[in-house]
Structure formats: C-alpha cells, structure tokens
C-alpha cells in the first residue's frame, strides 16, 4: 500500500484509508508499503532476491476457475462484484488484441486507465501478444490537456487508448497534437468509456493524425472485453463503431425482442455465449442478481444496457446507457444525442440531461457546466434549444436548462446520471459510495424540486 499519491500536481494522503482497509481484513498477515517510484526501483532487487533461483511450481485449474473480481463503475446503482474466469478473459481479450487490433511484439501499447477499470486488465494482457506496454501514474490533463499525446510522442506509441471524455477535453482546450508532437509511429487510437461524438472523430483526424485508425469501442467490466471494436480492413465512418468482435453475436433488439432494422434504436444485445461471460457475482450464490442484471429483458439473451442502432455499413451507433435514456413525450432519447449538440458550444465544458416526473407528465432537465467566466444567459439557453431543435429534433429540446458547478462522476470518470435523476425525483441516491465526488450532489439537493 502507498501512504500517499500525487495527482494533478497535488499530494493526497491515504493513511486513514489504509487503516480502515486493514481493520476490515482480519486474515491479513503482511502489509507492503510502497514509496515513490524511485524507491520502488531501488528496493525491487531486495524484495525479489529471496525468491531467485527457486523452482517455480504451478497448479492446474479448470477453465472456468475464478480468476479475479472486477467492480462495475456504479453508474447504474450499487457496484456489482463481477467474478471472471482468468482463462475466459484471456481468451476473449487475446482474440481482440491479436485479431481485431493485430498487436505484435513490435507494438508499444498504452491505455490510460485507473487500476480499478477493466481497461487496466486489458492493457496488462497485451503482454501476451509480445507487445511492450507503457504505464502512467498521474493526471491525464496535467500540466496540460495534451499530456497523453505528449506521452505518445515520448514513448513512440503505436497504440494509444483513452476515454471519449479525454478526447473531448483536448478538443475543447484547442489542443493541436499534430503540430506539437511527432506521432508518425501511432497506428491506433482507441476510445471507450462513453460515446465518442462525431466531433470527436473530427478532432482526431483534423488535429491529431489524419491517417490513424480511430476505433470507438463498446464492451464493459461485465465482460472484461468488447462487443464491438476494430474491424481490420473495414472503413471507419464518422460517429460509428466499426463492427462486432469475432465470436460475438452482437445485435440490436426492439422492445418486441426481434432484431431491429438499420437505424432503428433499441437494446444492444449478444445472442450467444462468449468466453468472458462472467461466472456470476461474488456473494450471489443463487445467481439471482446476475440473471436480473443481464437476462431479464430478453430470456436467454445478454442485454448489455446500451441504447444503440445498427448502421448501413455494418457498424453501430451508441446513444448512451439504456437506463439513462430520456422519455420525452413518449419517445426514448439517448442522452448522447443531446450531449453531442450541447457540448459543441465553446462556453460549455460538459452537460447532463435527466428525466423528471412533473405535473402528471415527464420533462427533461438539462444541466451544464460552464467555462470560467461564462454565464448561462437567456440568449445562450435560447441558442442551446435552437441547436437541439435543428440538429437533433424538437423532442431533444429540454424543458429546463440550469447551470451546475459540478456533475457527479464515478472513480473511472463516468457521469452518473442516475444519481441526479434520483435527486430531482425525490428518491434516495443509490450509489453514493461509487462516486469520486459525492459532495457534488449537495448542490442538486439545494434546488427546490417539487
């Protein structure tokens, strides 16, 4: 354990947290305390010396033996304790890295991730391709918004992975990596964690690298892998995910449980089993919570919780999480459709839209976080509504627009729309412990929701 860490140029103490964790582990026998990286490097030889020269022994386990537990981010409620088999995940991720992305020993791979996000596991497994992996401890936007592209140049990365939100931050900060860094060696940029907007595609091809393969992926901690990712040799279309991974019967179902047609919105599903299907949830002995999470929507079919549509190119478009979709006058709307338009304003850093029960109906409330010095004027509200009406549809226009100081997000930097939805509808927030900034909820509670 570490007694402190540095992030964004600041020091954060975690001694109290360490004490709390240790107190909750009655069978703990040893604590290894880590200092700064330089100390770890100096002491590594001492730690490993007693084990050198010893014969390593291995034990054979069945294919579906539990390997590790991953925790969901908490965007949809209390985090799930997802138990994975090591062999199943290695087979699934190995397929993606070998065949979808074609990684080899010549590649240098980096995916910005916390150790609690599944992309950390994904990154480590790239070692199985023979590739070199790069790890980074720190803020992705400190001391500037182009920090990850700077790392890509310094480490001569061939594969750079990051969240859609970080690409959006770099775009809004007017970062121009193609002019600032040598990215000639960069073959792939991968994006996941949330929906990558068409403007995000524009940013990459206009200001990062014009011939890079930009891959917007979807999958999750639930499967420690992807449903949709890179398709070698296929074209990349603005705002679209290329296509299903090998062995993944990915589809979109309508409410009737029938495969939807092209451009018809519905639930992202997988209709056949796959290697990294989790063994279950830790502590869920009868698998009741597990079945309720994925198989209640359509019996025998994995329902992932993404609102999506198939495209004429064989790809997919995502519109946000199904449980965060808005009901506007009887029509389901994906929040990503609203965010794409709203966050095109220079004055707006990010936004969140939620549904609120209001006067025997449902209304859409839009919260925006403004840049320092910007003000949410009536003129700006009017322009927001006009753009949504013309660039999306009249149903996408919010009934109420408010300026918020901060939006709640998980520790893996995902917005938590359900927390705000609970507050505006007078319900108890179900997942406070999963938030990186739980204090952000206080502002929403101070509003007079009736």
UniProtKB/TrEMBL annotation:
GO BP annotations listed: lipid metabolic process
Keyword match Cell membrane: no
A matching Pfam family: AMP-binding
TM regions (residue ranges): none
Keyword Ligase: yes
InterPro entries named among the record's database cross-references: Acac_CoA_synth (IPR005914), AMP-bd_C_sf (IPR045851), AMP-binding_CS (IPR020845), AMP-dep_synth/lig_dom (IPR000873), ANL_N_sf (IPR042099)
Gene3D superfamilies: 3.30.300.30, N-terminal domain of ligase-like
Keywords for this protein: ATP-binding, Ligase, Nucleotide-binding
Coiled-coil residues: none
GO molecular function: acetoacetate-CoA ligase activity; ATP binding
Residue stretches making up the AMP-dependent synthetase/ligase domain: 54-270
Membership in a protein family: Belongs to the ATP-dependent AMP-binding enzyme family.
Protein name, UniProt field: Unannotated protein
Native organism: freshwater metagenome
Taxonomic lineage of the native organism: unclassified sequences, metagenomes, ecological metagenomes
């Amino acid at each position: 354990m570490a007694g402190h860490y540095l992030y964004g140029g600041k020091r954060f103490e975690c001694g109290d947290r360490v004490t709390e964790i240790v107190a909750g582990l009655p069978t703990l026998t040893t604590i290894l305390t880590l200092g700064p990286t330089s100390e770890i490097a100096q002491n590594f030889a001492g730690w490993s010396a007693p084990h050198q020269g010893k014969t390593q022994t291995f034990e054979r386990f069945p294919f579906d033996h539990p390997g590790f537990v991953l925790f969901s981010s908490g965007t949809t409620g209390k985090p799930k304790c997802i138990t994975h088999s090591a062999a199943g995940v290695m087979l699934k991720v190995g397929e993606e890295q070998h065949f979808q992305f074609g990684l080899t020993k010549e590649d240098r791979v980096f995916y910005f991730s916390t150790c609690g996000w599944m992309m950390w596991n994904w990154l480590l497994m790239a070692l199985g391709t023979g590739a070199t992996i790069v790890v980074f401890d720190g803020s992705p936007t400190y001391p500037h918004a182009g920090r990850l592209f700077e790392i890509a140049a310094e480490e001569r990365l061939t594969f750079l992975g990051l969240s859609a939100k970080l690409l959006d931050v770099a775009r809004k900060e007017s970062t121009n990596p193609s002019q600032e860094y040598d990215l000639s060696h960069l073959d792939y940029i991968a994006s996941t964690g949330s929906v990558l907007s068409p403007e995000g595609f524009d940013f990459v091809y206009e200001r990062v690298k014009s011939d890079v393969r930009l891959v917007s992926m979807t999958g999750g901690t639930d499967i420690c892998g992807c449903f949709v990712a890179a398709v070698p040799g296929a074209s990349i279309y603005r705002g679209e995910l290329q296509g299903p991974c090998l062995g993944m019967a990915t589809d979109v179902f309508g409410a009737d449980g029938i495969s939807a047609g092209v451009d018809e919105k519905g639930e992202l599903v997988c209709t056949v089993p796959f290697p990294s299907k989790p063994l279950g949830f830790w502590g869920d002995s009868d698998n009741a919570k597990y079945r309720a999470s994925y198989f209640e929507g359509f019996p025998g079919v994995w329902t992932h919780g993404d609102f999506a549509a198939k495209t004429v190119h064989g790809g997919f478009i995502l519109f946000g999480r199904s449980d965060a979709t808005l009901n506007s006058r009887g029509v389901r709307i994906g929040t990503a459709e609203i965010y794409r338009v709203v966050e095109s304003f220079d004055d707006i850093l990010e936004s969140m839209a939620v549904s609120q029960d209001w006067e025997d109906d449902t209304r859409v409330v839009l919260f925006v976080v403004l840049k320092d010095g910007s003000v949410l004027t009536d003129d700006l509200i009017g322009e927001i509504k006009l753009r949504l009406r013309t660039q999306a549809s009249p149903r996408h226009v919010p009934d109420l627009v408010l300026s918020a100081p901060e939006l709640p997000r998980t520790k893996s930097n995902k917005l938590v729309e359900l927390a705000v939805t609970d507050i505006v509808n007078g319900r108890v927030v179900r997942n406070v412990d999963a938030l990186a900034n739980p204090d952000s909820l206080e502002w929403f509670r101070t509003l007079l929701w009736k």
